[in-house]
Amino acid sequence: MADVHTPEQRSYNMSQVRSKNTKPELIVRKFLFAQGFRYRLHDKKLPGKPDVVLPKYKTVILIHGCFYHGHDGCRYFVIPKTRTDWWLDKINSNRRRDEENYVKLTEAGWRIITIYECELKPAKRDETLHILLKQLNQTNK
């Protein structure tokens, strides 16, 4: 099946996909700040430049998009019908890189909390943020 967009339209659409300061990231950051947590963003010194770094708690928070990180069992992760092989390679390489960064961070003594985009949709948001707060408070003790 051919793409319904022209190459120029497709290029524009893809250029609008952000890697930093996404809506899910902003939700988590705003929540953390309101709870009194202070953090760093995208620390280049750490493997994978984690989205949120809480140095005081030696914890990083990774906020993944369900599609680009291949969130299994998620309704937002649907393999495209066009250029399927290319997309699968891209998603699998993202997963591999995520795993490598996870191992490096763990070996360096960092705790990792991963939140997927779907967990921050309005229906699950409060529960997810409550769990996040609980995990961070356990680290604080």
Automatic annotation (TrEMBL):
Keyword list, A-Z: DNA damage, DNA repair, Endonuclease, Hydrolase, Nuclease
Name of the protein this chain belongs to: Very short patch repair endonuclease
Record-linked NCBIfam families: vsr
E.C. numbers: 3.1.-.-
GO molecular function terms noted in the UniProt entry: endonuclease activity; hydrolase activity
Organism field: Spirosoma agri
Domain of life of the source: Bacteria
Main function: May nick specific sequences that contain T:G mispairs resulting from m5C-deamination.
Family affiliation: Belongs to the vsr family.
Pfam assignment, any one: Vsr
GO terms of biological process kind: mismatch repair
